[in-house]
Amino acid sequence: MNDLIHNAIEKQFGVISKVELIQSLWSGYGELSKLYLESNSISSLIVKHIQFPIEVKHPRGWNTNQSHLRKAKSYEVELAWYKSWTKHCDDYCRIPKLYHSESTEGEHFLILEDLDTAGFPRRKTSLNPKQAKIGLQWLANFHATFMGESPKYLWKEGTYWHLATRPDEWEAMKESPLKEKAKEIDQILANCKYQTIIHGDAKLANFCFSEDMNQIAAVDFQYVGGGCGMKDVVYFLGSCLTEMECEKYEKELLDYYFTELDLALVRKNKALNYEALVKEWRSLYAIAWTDFTRFLLGWSPTHQKLNSYSRKLIGVTLSFLEKK
Description:
The chain is α+β, with helices and mostly antiparallel strands. The chain has eleven helices and nine strands. The chain has two domains: about 110 residues, Phosphorylase Kinase, domain 1, CATH 3.30.200.20; about 200 residues, Aminoglycoside 3'-phosphotransferase, Chain: A, domain 2.
């Protein structure tokens, strides 16, 4: 942390007593730290320090200029998200508060609320289907909040894996019907009638839970942008459930998500044809899952998520496209 940020924090929040590294950011683009304060009002803060590296070291070897530009833009998007959009989020789609931000050439700082002390201290590496419902509830409320909104200052198309930002991974795929249909799949999702703003990286690691597992909050908004809510749903479920659970509880979990979405749309006074929305988004579940699988096949063809359930949904999608 440079002196500018250190002084800005101490001026606003009081003396820093301890700095604890939480983790390095992906590919060496900075670090996430927890700051302990000698303060009676706020005892700790989270600082996300983004600093573009001289030499990029991607853990899977994707050290291309395209990759760097995508990451650089992602941090600009996250800053825009916190500055322009978070005022619309409430306790139904809880996120950390932004206290302060600074930007200089090649560096960004986000000073955020510490969700641990705000009542969300638990992190999970897996969930059971019942627990997964709280994540779907958060997503339903988030999607309802921004239903029909144009993603100004954000990614036009949310998620980090969509085709336009992943030409290298598409090129790396083996020749297959899925590779041939990748653009068509991408266009179906991009052109769906009912659009919202999606989290874009809604994996389990980006959610924080209360001790009793009844409350949830989300972090990491680098890939927030426009899109179909099914993109978030498939990515979340694939990150927290086994392939057997995904298949066995698919209908139950989708039914739950759409019930919560209906409640949230009413609460947010969003006037739209709910039945038409459900019909469209349900039909895009397998397509969204297949789209993410397309990315994995190019990025990491031995990834554990390339399982029998994913292959089944690829088959469902390709059969649908053949009948169009």
